[in-house]
Structures are given as C-alpha cells and as structure tokens.
Amino acid sequence: MTVRIKQLPELERPYEKLEHYGVDSLSNEELLAILLKTGYKDTSSKELASQILSMVSSLQELSSFPYEKLVSMKGIGRSKAATLLSALEFSKRIERDKTDIKNKKLTSSQMVYDYYSLKTRNQKQEHFYVVYLDNAKNIIRDKLLFIGTINYSVVHPREIFKEAYLLSASAIICVHNHPSGNIFPSKEDIEITKRLTSIGNLLGIPLLDHLIIGHENYYSFLENQDLKEFR
Asked: Is residue 222 within 8 Å of 109, Cβ to Cβ?
C-alpha cells in the first residue's frame, strides 16, 4: 500500500522535518525526495527517491549517472533529471572550492593530488591541467588546457608556455587523469613529459612535476625521480 507524503505525521514529512529540525536531520532519501518534489501515480516522491537510491551502491555513484539514464527512469522527466544533476554538480563545485589551491604555497605532490582527485573524479575522458607557480612556489593559477586522449596532436607546449608568460610564471606542474584508474605512465605520457621538460629548461620555466591521477592514487614523475633522466 502506497503511503503518500501528506498521510505521514507532520514531522515525518521532509519539508516539515527540515523546517523543525534543520536540513542535516534529513536522510538521503528525504533530501532526494525534496529535490524530486513529486513522484508519479501511486508512488510518492519518497518512494521514488528510495527506488533511485536502491540502484546505486553509494552517493558517489549517483553523482556520475548520465542524463539519458535518469530521463529514461519512470517518474523522472527532463526537469527532474536536470534538477538532480544540477544539484549534484553544484555540490561537487562547493567541495572543490573548499580545497582551492590558488595562492597557496606548494608543499608536496600529495597536495596537488588531493585537489585534482576531486576535480577529475568520474571524468570519462582525460583532462590535462597545468599549474602555474611563482618564484616562491606559490600557485598563481591552474588551467584546464586539453580534454581527450593525451598525445602530441592534443598537448601543445605552445599553449602551455604562452600562458606561463602571460602569468609571469616561474615554473609549472602538469596534471592529468587516467579514467581507467591505471596510474602508470603510457609511452605518450613519458614522451610529452620529456618534451615539456626540455622546452621548459630552455625557456627558464621548468617543469617541476607531472602527476597522473588514478581512482585512489597517483603517479608522480618527480617522486619517482624520472625527471632527472630528462634533464
């Protein structure tokens, strides 16, 4: 038997519970029900929320749901799918802002990994970032320069070092993810690192490190002492 939201005791209804006890008192199901607003015939928004949550093993998995999959679900149309994905993306952006590395002093490769593991989580393509630093190794800014399979035709040193000159950067760090989760550098990764090291040394804007981000760990050319071979 379907129990409608209005049939629940007042303080068990998501909106009323939020008003009386605060948003942190709500369960995942109740939070999702508020975003959904309505269910469908004989199914309340709470029941629909429960159905959606039963399809995933974690909230992290829900955040990577494609739009097409959400729209195809019973009770989820374009509006609800857009609302859910927007809320999830907004949450991810808030989380990234908490760990914004701009103007911070670089102290380790781990610090870079901690930041970019959030930025690249659930990405289906490789994202290539460049971090620009001043003389004191303070981070001036970072920039996403390329998306797609990393190779010579995609990663242009010209674009990387042009930005470095515009920012008056003294050094750079490159970061890209491997959606497969495999952190070990490919032949292309090694060749590009060699190329950027050579050009950076020539221009006086050295490449300090190149990190490859996996699912739960990373590979650092600096920490593995690979850069010494490229000098």
From this structure: yes
Kindly state the tokens that stand for 104. Answer: 């911070």
Counted residue by residue, the chain has a size of 231
CATH number for 99-230 (one of 3.40.140.10, 1.10.260.40, 3.40.50.2000, 3.40.50.300): it is 3.40.140.10
Per-residue burial over 204-224, b if 16 or more Cβ lie within 10 Å, else e, is ebbbbbbbbbbeeebbbbbee
Please give the structure tokens belonging to residue 132. Answer: 């620009």
- pLDDT of 79-136, one tens digit each? 888 888 888 888 777 766 655 666 677 788 988 898 888 888 778 889 999 999 999 9
Global confidence as pTM: 0.60
Instruction: Provide the 10 A C-beta neighbour count for residue 33.
Output: 25
Q: Which 3 state secondary structure label does DSSP give 75? A: coil
Query: Bigger pLDDT: 27 or 103?
Result: 27
In 3-state terms, what secondary structure has residue 225? coil
Buried residues in 90-104 as b, exposed as e (16+ CB within 10 A): eeeeeeeeeeebeee
Q: Could you give the CA distance from residue 145 to residue 128 in angstroms, rounded to a whole number?
A: 6
Q: In sequence order, what are the beta bridge partners of 112?
A: none
